[in-house]
Every structure is written in structure tokens, then in C-alpha cells.
Amino acid sequence: MAQNFPNGLTLFHRRIYKLVEDPATDPLISWGKDNNSFVIWNLEEFIRRDIVDKFDCGKFSEFRSELRHYGFRRIKKGSGELEFGHEDFVRGHPERLKAMMLKAFRKNRARFLAQEAQEEMQRLQI
Q1: 3 within some domain
Q2: b/e map of 50-87 (b: 16 or more CB within 10 Å)?
Q3: pTM recorded for the entire structure
Q4: Residue 104: inside a domain
């Protein structure tokens, strides 16, 4: 199924959406029941198949860090299952990925500017 991704979208956003959307990967990773999350059904198999390498991550912890960077939150599931959700990661609406990306950019930029300001204040007090 072809998606209409918005221009300027990062590879991470395209790849995660395509992976979750692909019916061939459903036994491993698929949409959550509310269609705004995805479930990794078998973490060991996910790692064994080197899925994280497709996201330029060497380890699952780096992949999870990327998810957090873009605002995904962990949703509690049963043993052996991991679910991550985001209000703008919605089945059938790849155009919302742009909003997701921009929110992460603004949040991280604000954090960077606050840190820069704090360092400048410390420097001036010396």
C-alpha cells in the first residue's frame, strides 16, 4: 500500500510507519488496537532480525531512545510485548507524521536553548 508522506519527513518517520503498516511484519510488529501506537510482539525476534539496523541504531536501546526523542511513549503491555504510542502516529494518516516531527524539533530546540542560557548565566557569574 502506497503512503503519501509529507515532504521534509525524516527517514526515521518514514521507516517506522512503513514497517508498522506492512502486513508481512504483523507477527513481529503491528498497529495497536487504538491505531495510534504499535506493538512489538516478540522483542527477541525483533532484535534477532536486526530490525533496529534499518533505523541506523546498533542496539535496541538506541532505537528506544529515538522513539523517546520523537515523543513516543511506552504503553504497558503483557510480558514479551512492547507498545509505543504517539498522538500523531495514526494508522491511515501518514500526513500527521510531519506534526510529530515538528513537535519533537520544537521541544528539543527549547531544551537546547534553555541549556545554552543556563550555561551563559553560569559563565557570566564567574
Answers
A1: no
A2: ebbeebebeeeeebbebbeebbbeeeeeeeeebbbbbe
A3: 0.78
A4: yes
